[in-house]
Backbone:
DNA sequence: GCAAAAGTGTTCCAGATACACCCATGT
DNA sequence: ACATGGGTGTATCTGGAACACTTTTGC
């Protein structure tokens, strides 16, 4: 038992984990095994331990659910309306993470619940206020694509310009002109040729590029 | 006494309260009366009550310290490193607020501690990790001035274009061209003439403007 | 009539947009 | 040789930046 002179809320982290697959933006959900919202899908998350920082807690949960570490993770917003959890007062610090398309080898759920990737336009009904969290994450993601190099966080270590363009087109839901896109993205000077080429299909091989500073997200314009 | 099966952190809100005075960006600090950091300056804030939302808690603290309500308030970031408060684990949801220059009539401190406005370039040493919070708030403020109509939140109900320009110049710390500024700000179509004029000093009176949607902050460009 | 801030237009430059054909490869 | 996606250049438009003089008022 832990005693306090004043009441304390419980504190959790929840994570919107994005990846791109089959030219679709997807996020990871977990089927709840217990009450409340039993059987509903929810964002991965959990309680913050007393000896770990908030980002640390988010990275721990991220790794528990996906096995990945070292990916892009950003604090989104903190939700704490009384009543958002029917059991007790729970405040959650929400984060979002971007996983490169070549790092998806999710361990089939640590907690033995069902885990699944859902296209952002085909989400099931979510537990708690999680659809509000997802909505805010999506808004942030779209906004940041426009004024930062965030999109590069989705790329594998080597990629073609066409693949990069598809990332933008998928998330922003609009087609772009190939020549203008290439001029723009190369002018950023944030990627460079690797010297390798990708040979596939009966057509000209594509030059492969890499991100110059893989960890880094810069503001542009 | 309140008992929990698992340990819970304490939860607070802290607020960076900005205003403009004498063409200087200032924020409100409170001198701590008790330990820890006794005698140091700190951001206004306090514990979140169990029956109030996070924004509600922030607005309550804001009103307790300044007497103002209905001003712009935005969640900034949540800080929760273990050890940021030496007494117990405290997680704080940080906010920032903008107070129009005509609404500053701070009640001389509710909690009987000293309260004061400090220019952002003349801040004293701060308690806890509050200088980190202030730094982040300032970065957000400057960034948002560029891509939103946030600056209008500092304006009184009627103002001249010169006054508005001074707000931008003060916060961004750079001079602007009068003609370009006016063209730009009028093209936003977010302010309109009131029909009144401000007469003062031995020169031509200035047209007065008002914000069309006083509560609203829009993304621009 | 003079001091002081208000108000106003044009030119120039850079970055974004629109747009169509040739290239390298596999079958 | 043909099908497939890779790769490239130019003209135009638009929004931002630079820049100086006239107007209205109080004293």
Residues:
């Amino acid at each position: 038992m832990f005693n306090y002179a004043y009441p304390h809320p419980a504190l959790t982290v929840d994570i919107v984990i994005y990846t791109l697959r089959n030219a679709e933006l997807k996020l990871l959900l977990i089927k709840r095994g217990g009450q409340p919202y039993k059987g509903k899908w929810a964002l991965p998350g959990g309680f913050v331990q007393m000896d770990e920082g908030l980002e640390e807690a988010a990275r721990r949960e991220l790794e528990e659910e996906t096995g990945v570490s070292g990916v892009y993770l950003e604090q989104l917003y903190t939700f704490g309306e009384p009543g958002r959890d029917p059991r007790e007062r729970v405040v959650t610090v929400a984060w979002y993470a971007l996983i490169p398309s070549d790092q998806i080898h999710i361990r089939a759920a640590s907690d033995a619940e069902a885990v699944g990737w859902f296209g952002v336009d085909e989400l099931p009904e979510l537990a708690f206020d999680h659809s509000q969290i997802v909505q805010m994450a999506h808004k942030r993601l779209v906004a940041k694509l426009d004024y930062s190099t965030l999109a590069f966080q989705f790329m594998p270590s080597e990629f073609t310009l066409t693949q990069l363009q598809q990332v933008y087109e998928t998330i922003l839901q609009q087609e772009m002109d190939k020549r203008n896109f290439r001029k723009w993205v190369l002018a950023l000077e944030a990627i460079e040729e690797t010297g390798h080429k990708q040979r596939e299909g009966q057509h000209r091989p594509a030059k492969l590029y890499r991100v110059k500073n893989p960890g880094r997200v810069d503001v542009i314009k």
